Every structure is written in C-alpha cells, then in structure tokens.
Amino acid sequence: MFRFCIADTEHDWREGTEQYKFIEHCLASVDRQKQPWLIFLAHRVLGYSSSSFYADEGSFEEPMGRESLQKLWQKYKVDIAVYGHAHNYERTCPIYQNIFTSREKSYYKGTLNGTIHVVAGGGGASLSDFTPINTTWSYFKDHDYGFVKLTAFDHSNLLFEYKKSRDGKVYDSLKS
Q1: Worst-scoring range by mean pLDDT, 2-11, 51-60, 75-84?
Q2: 51 with 130: CB under 8 angstroms?
Q3: Of the residues 16, 116, 165, 175, which has the fewest C-beta atoms closer than 10 A?
C-alpha cells in the first residue's frame, strides 16, 4: 500500500539532472489505486527543518534548495517526505512553497494539497538543536532519540507514529 521513492542526496537533484529525472520517473510510475500512499525518502533534508544546522544557513533546507522538488511533490501528490541528517525529530503541517495548506495537526482526510515533511534523524548520533526561530509550518519538535512507524490499514486509512527509543511510547501521530 506504500510506494517509497528514495533520492540520493549526495548528487545534484535540481531540474534537468539525472537524479531529478530518476525522482520524477519514480513518482510518475505510482499506481495510486494499488499504492495510495506515496512517501518520499532522502538522507539530507530536502524539505523543511528548523534544526539550527539549517536555520543558521538561513534556509531551513539543504543548500541546493527544494524548489525543483516541490513542483514534483505537488504534481504527484506526495503525502509524506521523510529525512534524516538533522539528529532530532520534527513534523510539519502539509506545506507547499513555504505556505501551509492545512492547519489540522493530527487528522487529515482527502487531498492534502501539500506534503507533510518529517525529519526523523534521532537514530543514535549526537542530537541536533533547534533554532529559536518559531516557524508556522512546524507542528511538533523533539530533541530526543526516536523512530517513526507507518501503518496502512487500508487504501484510505494511514497511521503515522513517532516513538521515543527509550520507552517506545507514541509522542506524535497523525491519521489520514
């Protein structure tokens, strides 16, 4: 029920590159009748993060930017984009071109009209701090070790959970 499209963030992903063509092919080849949940994965944060690592650069993202990819995420209706690299946890609202498309925090039905971005980088290395800048698109931040779990109950119902490693309890979740 999931389709995962995984990008190599160590190569150029801007429009016209081989990586961009690969990503577009992966996203375009999804049969949403068979795989209704489209998840984009990458090591470096190609979407949004308020980790101090990115905020210090003034961008909330990797230096090459997300502009080219946002068009693809929107065109192919990517539900969730998950990244590592910043060693913390953060989830955004559905967002497109720096604007949140829904104020709902935990229950989504229908078309999101934007992509939910998740940094799930608390897998074991030293934790990354967040910037003191408050962003309107960031719904949940955690400076701890943890992991995410996706469960598709059927073609219409998805459960996304963030659990802390120390106790396995759910600290953030969303349903669709």
Answers
A1: 51-60
A2: yes
A3: 16
Q: Where do runs of H (alpha helix) occur along 13-170?
A: 18-28, 52-55, 67-75
Model confidence pLDDT, tens digit, residues 7-22: 998 888 889 999 999 9
DSSP letter string over 56-86?
TTTSSS-TT-SHHHHHHHHHTT--EEEE-SS
Is residue 84 within 8 Å of 121, Cβ to Cβ?
A: yes
Token digits of residue 164: 């802390």
Domains of the chain: 2-175 (3.60.21.10)
Convert the pLDDT of each residue in 95-112 to its tens digit.
888 778 877 777 676 667
Residues 51 and 88 sit within 8 Å (Cβ to Cβ): yes
